[in-house]
Design brief:
The protein is α/β, with parallel strands linked by helices and about 625 residues long. Helices cover about 35% and strands about 15% of the residues. The strands form five sheets. It has a 17-stranded parallel β-sheet. It has a two-stranded antiparallel sheet with strand order 4-6. Helix 16 (about 365-375) links the parallel strand 14 and strand 15. Helix 16 (about 365-375) packs parallel to helix 17. The N and C termini lie far apart (about 80 Å).
């Protein structure tokens, strides 16, 4: 006799290894499979992934035509009423999902609850016509009456009604009917948080301010205090002091607040479990050293900037740190100027174990401080904001950051990761440098400053490149210049090819970081247009003729990117990559840009599409992803 003892457990184990589409297929095989796998299907919900968008668009279509059509919302609430208790990890960005989660209040077994950038409601609920006939004073009174009605039945906290304040009513921007829904969601949202006592991760995005009532810091602390398992908090919603948060949640390990930092940077007492802090806040050297002293196990810290305060002497710093070095391993400073180098000389000696530095700007003076004090540095990270250019009358513009990254790289032979896609390595001395980085596994930055033809010389080269010669004087000059270009390209690629442990090599441009809107023609009659960062021309060409085969030593390469550079990769080059890089899994650079493009960019887009088809035929296992999406409009 055959029994199915243990079969459901086996099916559940299989379910943990399936992605959502396959899991959704598996639960429809039979009733027993459905019963065994339904927990896996609903254990983690992220409404930005898979088919959630399509499902919502289908069931909420009526709402787009009629704001008072609740059929889609009712369906969604029924779904969460039935399955909400199975959800353990919930990541929400859609307003309809958040409303259903809050109003049903069935998601009471959450371990992580992340509210991302919530999309605003497309259409407001229609208001009663009689509201528009009331005077401004009568509208205010009616708002107060309906606010009290919305708060009826709340027994969670004696201070609940005092903790929230209704937003002022502006019937030109919203309706009181919509505000009543917002009040209900606000009330149920905080009740839901209090019911999830096992919550470990909580994220509150700033976008909640767009429709939720203002919450008091006291009520926020009262809500956090019972969450004894909470270890990770990202809070851009409530203005509250970090010290107060740690007093309410003493076991918190990670805290982040990126917008409108509130309160002082100091800690009132030592905290042993805190390991990660992100605050978009400026601080002085004194405050920073005190913070490090009171968080002895802190591993990662992100701040906005350092004050230009007087430098302390050695006795002062020893007093602030108790003569005990910090265990900090990662430091991020968003705005670090050239004149702040002496501040780093004060702070960095007390962080001897620093492994990772993340900066937005990189200047010579801070670089020298980092190199001098951070001998164990293994990772350089950066966010691109474009170069800082100093304009001096009568002289050429001077890039104040030129050569800084190269200086740091040459002084840090222990580097394992360079991740600064917005920076360009262009110093000739770097490629002449005889040192090697034996542990480097990740190189993500642009490589430029290489010799290129002028437009006129490029036209001459295209004409003579397939001719046997002899050439005329001007053509001979271009021919010799092309040989110098080829030699330099091969030299750089040979240096990169010597980095045998590289697993990620991305030398393209990240267009996502360069999208901006500019005013064309100015003044009256102007128009807003999207501009794309210019393509790189003084870059590596990446053809076999120009030295692509010099990268044959990168046997472990898994990710290769060349998005946005003027490369010359062709079918032969793709064939070489598919053969030599057996471990390649991801490629950036062959996806179409999309959007409104110029004629030249459209031709390049079609060429990328042809190359993509070739590469997919050679290596169907390689995933092709765009590094960013950008729309360019021709400026005429």
């Amino acid at each position: 006799m055959i029994t199915n003892t243990g079969i459901p457990e086996i099916i559940q184990q299989i379910g943990t290894h399936l992605d959502l589409p396959h899991l959704f297929t598996a639960i429809r095989v039979c009733r027993s499979w459905n019963h065994a796998l339904i927990h896996c299907l609903w254990a983690s919900i992220d409404d930005s992934l898979y088919s959630w968008g399509r499902i919502l668009d289908t069931f909420l279509e009526g709402r787009r035509m009629d704001p008072n059509d609740n059929s889609g919302s009712d369906w969604l609430r029924k779904v969460f009423l039935k399955y909400g208790h199975l959800i353990q990890h919930l990541h929400v960005r859609r307003r309809e999902i958040l409303d259903a989660v809050c109003v049903t209040r069935t998601c009471v077994e959450l371990k992580s609850f992340r509210v991302g950038k919530v999309e605003p409601v497309g259409l407001q609920l229609l208001e009663h016509e009689w509201m528009y006939n009331l005077s401004a004073e009568e509208q205010v009174k009616m708002t107060e009456v309906r606010w009290k009605d919305a708060m009826e039945g709340v027994v969670d906290s004696l201070n609940f009604k005092q903790a929230f304040k209704p937003r002022s009513l502006d019937l030109s921007m919203t309706t009181l009917a919509q505000m009543e829904v917002d009040w209900e969601v606000t009330r149920e949202f905080w009740m839901l948080l209090r019911e999830n006592r096992g919550l470990q991760v909580l994220r509150l995005d700033e976008s909640l301010k767009g429709f939720m009532s203002v919450v008091s810091s006291e009520y926020f602390m009262e809500t956090l205090a019972p969450l004894k398992d909470l270890v990770d908090l990202e809070n851009d919603f409530v203005q509250v002091d970090l010290a107060a948060v740690l007093q309410a949640v003493p076991d918190l390990r990670r805290y982040a607040k990126f917008t409108n930092p509130f309160g002082s940077f100091s800690l009132t007492q030592p905290v042993q479990r805190l390991i990660h802090v992100e605050l978009n806040k400026s601080t002085s050297c004194e405050e920073l050293l005190q913070f490090l002293r009171n968080s002895p196990n802190l591993e990662s810290l992100s701040i906005h900037s350092l004050h230009r305060a007087p430098v302390f002497d050695a006795n002062d710093t020893e007093t602030l740190t108790d003569d005990s070095p910090s265990q900090l391993q990662r430091l991020q400073i968003s705005m670090l100027m050239n004149i702040d180098g002496h501040l780093l000389d004060t702070v960095l000696p007390w962080i001897p174990d620093l492994r990772t530095i993340h900066l937005t700007r990189l200047y010579g003076r801070p670089v020298r401080s980092i190199v001098e004090h951070c001998s164990a540095l293994t990772t350089i990270e950066g966010s691109n904001m474009g170069p800082i250019v100093q304009v001096i009358p009568g002289r050429r513009q001077e890039n104040l950051e030129a050569g800084a990254l190269e200086e740091m790289i040459m002084a840090c032979p222990t580097l394992e990761k360079i991740d600064w896609i917005g920076k360009t390595l262009c110093e000739t001395s770097l490629w002449d440098y005889t040192g090697v980085w034996p542990n480097l596994t990740y190189l993500r930055c642009q490589i430029g400053g290489l010799r290129v033809h002028t437009v006129e010389d490029e036209a001459i080269w295209k004409h003579i490149k397939h001719l046997p010669g002899p050439f005329r004087l001007e053509e001979q000059r271009v021919f010799e210049q092309q040989e110098l270009i080829r030699q330099q390209q091969r030299l750089v690629l040979r240096r990169i090819g010597a980095l045998r442990n590289l697993r990620t090599l991305d030398i393209g441009a990240d267009f996502q970081l360069h999208e901006n809107t500019s005013w064309r023609n100015g003044g009256q009659g102007g128009s807003w247009v999207d501009r794309k960062r210019p393509r790189m021309y003084d870059c590596l060409r990446l053809s076999l003729e120009m030295g692509l085969d010099e990268l044959a030593g990168l046997k472990d390469l898994e990710v290769f990117g060349f998005e946005g550079i003027e490369h010359e990769i062709d079918e032969a080059g793709l064939g070489w990559m598919s053969e030599k890089w057996n471990k390649l899994r991801v490629m950036y650079g062959l996806c179409r840009s999309g959007g409104l493009l110029s004629k030249e960019e459209t031709e390049k887009d079609l060429r990328r599409e042809r190359l993509l088809s070739v590469m997919q035929g050679l290596r169907p296992d390689v995933v092709h992803e765009p590094s960013g999406v950008c729309i360019m409009m021709p400026l005429t």
